[in-house]
Design brief:
It comes from Reinekea thalattae. By secondary structure, this protein is mainly α. It contains 5 helices and no strands. It has one domain. The chain is about 70% helix and about 0% strand.
Length: about 140
């Protein structure tokens, strides 16, 4: 007879995090439409910054939640660190590439939209991620 029993008989599935990407995409498209009314090149810069931020967030969501629910905390920590480094590599690499290749692209609008969409994703992440641990009673609240 084993004295150590699992806390839950059900396995934890990954949280559903696509809602954050939907909110970021809607914000990107809305601000792009507003920026297009001002000037086309600013609208293109806003769209580029928003799409870079959305792609970085999608990479982070997929990579960081890969080992969600694993009892080995080191795997979860390593996946989160790897996802964070990947996210910032995507943001820095793609944004610098866009600004260097397209010299007429408005860098301020690109980085402003990238920052705002990224901030929106960071603020929305705790609110929009549906955690299955709550449904099976592991987390209170």
């Amino acid at each position: 007879m084993s004295y150590f029993k699992p806390y839950s008989a059900k396995l934890l599935k990954r949280p559903v995090a696509y809602g954050v990407l939907v909110v970021q995409l809607l914000a990107t498209l809305t601000t792009t439409l507003v920026a297009l009314m001002v000037e086309v090149i600013i609208g293109l810069a806003v769209l580029s910054g928003g799409l870079i931020s959305v792609s970085a967030q999608a990479f982070f969501n997929y990579s960081a939640l890969r080992h969600f629910g694993d009892p080995n905390a080191l795997k979860v920590f390593a996946a989160t660190v790897k996802a964070m480094v990947g996210r910032w590599s995507i943001i820095i690499g793609f944004s610098l590439t866009a600004v260097i290749i397209y010299e007429e692209l408005h860098a301020g609008a690109l980085y402003g939209s990238l920052f705002l969409v990224h901030l929106l994703g960071a603020l929305a992440l705790p609110l929009l991620v549906k955690n299955p641990a709550k449904k099976i009673g592991l987390l209170k609240g």
